[in-house]
Amino acid sequence: MVIRIGLIGKTNAGKTTLFDSMTLKAGEISNYPFTTKSPDTGIAQAVTLCVHKEFNLLDNPKNSKCEEGWRFIPIEVTDLPGLIKGAWMGKGLGNQFLSVAAQSDALLHVVDASGSVDKDGKIAEPGTGDPLADLADVELELVLWYTKLFSSNLVKISKTAKLPGMGLPDAIAEVMQGIGVKREHVIYTLNEALLQERDVDTWNEKEMQNFCWVLRDISKPTLIIANKMDLPNSAENFKSLREKYKGLMVVPTSGEAELSLRRAEVKGLIKYVPGEERFDVVRPQELTDAQKNALAYIRRKVFGEYLRTGVQFGLNIAIFKLLKMNAVYPVADSTQSIRITL
Ligand SMILES: Nc1nc2c(ncn2[C@@H]2O[C@H](COP(=O)(O)OP(=O)(O)OP(=O)(O)O)[C@@H](O)[C@H]2O)c(=O)[nH]1
Ligand SMILES: [Mg+2]
Fold it and tell me: Is 188:218 a contact under the CB 8 Å cutoff?
């Protein structure tokens, strides 16, 4: 079972930059709005300490690689086009993108923490945009889309729920299983929304929307990625995001720094292990002035302030904390474990 992670967010938040840095693909990045036109999938890796060190064993991994005591577990990541208002109604191919996002096991919701994207998605001066509103807009699109899917199937849900041997949780799960909604998600949500005793035909619009908010949260775990932390104003907005979204995890990142470091490492210019709190220049004499300046900027603005770029950390948090995946030895066939073998 490969875990699937979807990158969602407003245009220009840095989704493709993060995607390219995780997968070493070459998706198009630009400061124009709506650069990415269709979803793209690549393979990234979550990293965890390998058990062989702990048990003093030699290992022979089959579906993940072990390097110097670290185990690299493959994860499928999907980069999505920026979401616009009205996506839930099908605007800007919104329906298509939302259904791709909804098939992921978890989402990374990328926000431009520097506030350098204006309300129309154009790049502006850092501090002039509103990352909290950007996040709320995209979340709303997602929930409205869930609500639309639910309400347009209401007659079917109501009928199925009354069939012998069926109930409301089965009926709702049947209609929404394609987007990863399971029966246990529905049962939890009905309880949370205090709708467990009510016939679905009697729900009013507000109750339906509330139900869909909770269902979206529970069935699609989401990590907030506060990106562009190297820019001014990001630290302040990061703090506000954490305060406002107390129940969610927020990870600060600089996708651009990670992408530069990973590409420099591929070229053999530096030694850098993703996630580590350092990088070393291998051949200083081969660096151009521009490359020297870029590395100095990354040292100062990213490693100096936040110790790391945060990209690998974010992926690891999504896999091991958000989805509560455990690397198991030996392999047990459980949906709660990533299958890796010694
Ligand atoms: N300073 C800084 N700029 C970044 C960072 N990440 C991305 N950018 C810049 O932000 C702009 C948008 O980046 P993209 O990766 O194309 O954004 P996107 O979210 O994929 O945009 P769409 O495809 O339009 O939805 C580009 O100019 C990037 O270079 C970062 O961590 N720091
Ligand atoms: Mg993009």
Answer: yes
